Amino acid sequence: MTTTTVVHLLRHGEVHNPEGILYGRLPEFHLSENGVRMAERAAAWFAGRDIAALYSSPLERAKETAAPVADEFGLAIRLDDRLIEAANGFQGRALSSRSLTDVQVMRRLYNPFLPSWGEPYTEIVERMVDVVKLVRKEAWGREAVCVSHQLPIWMARRAAERKRLWHRPDRRQCNLASVTSLTFEEHRLVGVAYSEPAAGLYKPGRTVPGA
């Protein structure tokens, strides 16, 4: 009989960020009240599933998103640096369309295929694949949740679907508190699914920097 294991990649909820900066890996960025509700919606979405392990990025917004899942299943949250947000040279800045006239910004945009402004896509994929393999082994025959961030999850999905890694950031399908599910039969990936448990809490036309 074939053993099926599912690893769910859960993106964190909305962050309190009134200044609209690209927060990246900066500390002390917590979920907003709406973000807490998103995390609760995600935990409810997992209810009834056979979740055996729970991992999280060490950043506050990810740990706070993992907390309701931990409560739902009585699991400890295990932190793993490989799930952390991608490094970004624009971290700490408030970016807008006018930023394209900023010499300090433009000089970092010379290679969108790497990308030149942050952690290489190939390195993000490598660490995400490593942690998925670890979690799959621990949850063998059951399911697991890994709380991470938009770009690492999107890179893991594009690699899983054998698509090129460079892409348009505005076309990522990885919304707040969304779930990207990787289904394995033994060690073979057989399916990629996407869900938005918190869709009813999204704010039309609003983007969240540094997610």
TrEMBL record:
SMART domains: PGAM. Coiled coil: none annotated. It comes from the Bacteria. SUPFAM superfamilies: Phosphoglycerate mutase-like. Signal peptide: none annotated. Its EC number is 3.1.3.-. GO terms for molecular function: hydrolase activity. The keyword Ligase does not apply. Pfam families: His_Phos_1. Keywords: Hydrolase. This is Histidine phosphatase family protein. It comes from Nocardiopsis mangrovi.
